[in-house]
Write a structure and sequence with these properties.
six-stranded parallel β-sheet; 10 helices; 41% helix; four-stranded parallel β-sheet; alpha/beta
Length: 327
């Protein structure tokens, strides 16, 4: 393993040296080839890291919820398994991520270890605060953990591996890219995704859930416009009609129809230049997969309600620290 990693480091150094020389010479076709080779190498490195998940004891998660929730469960499982040298076991109650992710080998192999998943169960106290106990499990025992696992702290130490594991199937990426290419041809401007979660949140406000108001969306759009200049905003939502009504007379806002699958819409948002999210795990993952700046709704929960107890002040265990909060 050490010799293999030394070889990787040497190859990386050579590729970087070639890249620097060709940039200096202005030979762009060679630069593109070198960048492609470098990306493939880094992909191999992250796959190699995931292949190290061969401990003797298992760590199990039973999937639940929709796409955003399942992505948190899977990413957190992998992050904790990498940290504690365990075999990750992800048992799906429905097809879920198997229909979305490019590499499903861990999910496919999980059934082999399912008999070990009911020996010990450890659950975090609330959904969205990091629980240190997951990293302190008895190394001689098998565990199932749950239920929500919604904190970036569970997997950010292995961010490269997680991003590699979360790559979507080519068919999903292709459909999303067609949408993005069409938008870029029509609007020669910075494209910023906006995810507006409303739906079920409208019916559980008494528990502390909040939907982001129009004032927040306008504030976030104004921030992005001032920072990046000419911007077209691409809105995806579970309440398309509400969004169409709010932005009916706004030329720089495009509201996507609800014709695509959740995975395609998420990849569309992730393929744009920047992201504005409101609330929920779906918008969180669209933002995490997006390469640019992310703005999120600061007042995402009513203080003093049952739900507020599930978060740290300002949601510091839930929202990524580099993201920008606005009210």
């Amino acid at each position: 393993m050490k010799k293999k990693r030394k070889c990787f480091v040497l190859i990386v150094c050579v590729l970087l040296a070639v890249l620097a020389c060709e940039v200096y010479r202005g030979r762009h076709h060679v630069v593109e080839f070198t960048l492609s080779a470098f990306a493939s190498l880094m992909s191999a490195l992250t796959v190699d890291s995931l292949d190290r998940l061969k401990g003797s004891k298992v760590l199990c998660v039973f999937s639940s919820g929709r796409l955003g929730n399942q992505m948190f469960q899977y990413a957190s499982l992998l992050g904790i398994a990498l940290k504690t040298n365990r075999i990750p076991v992800f048992l799906e109650t429905s097809s879920g991520l198997r229909d979305v992710l490019r590499n499903t080998s861990i999910i496919d192999n999980s059934v082999r270890y399912s008999s070990h998943c009911n020996e010990n169960f450890v659950r975090e106290r609330v959904c969205c605060k990091s629980f240190p106990g997951f990293f302190q499990l008895d190394p001689n025992k098998n565990y199932r953990i749950g239920r929500y696992l919604q904190s970036w702290r569970y997997f950010f130490e292995h961010e490269a591996e997680i991003r590699q594991a979360m790559k979507f199937k080519d068919s999903v990426v292709s459909q999303a890219q067609q949408v993005v290419d069409s938008l870029r041809q029509k609007y020669n401007r910075t494209l910023t995704g906006v995810h507006v979660r409303r739906g079920d949140y409208l019916y559980v406000e008494h528990q502390g859930y909040k939907t982001a108001p129009l004032t927040y969306l306008l504030h976030a759009m104004d921030y992005v416009t001032k920072r990046f200049g000419d911007v077209t905003f691409v809105v995806s939502s579970d309440d398309v009609r509400w969004c169409q009504e709010q932005f009916a007379n706004t030329s720089d806002v495009i509201v996507l129809s609800a014709n695509s699958t959740p995975a395609v819409d998420m990849m569309t948002l992730a393929s744009l230049d920047h992201m504005i999210m409101t609330v929920g795990t779906y918008g969180w993952w669209a933002s995490f997969l997006n390469p640019g700046v992310t703005v999120y709704y600061r007042d995402f929960v009513d203080p003093g309600t049952p739900l507020s107890e599930s978060f740290n002040p300002n949601g510091t265990d839930f929202y990524c620290p580099v993201w920008i909060s606005l009210s």
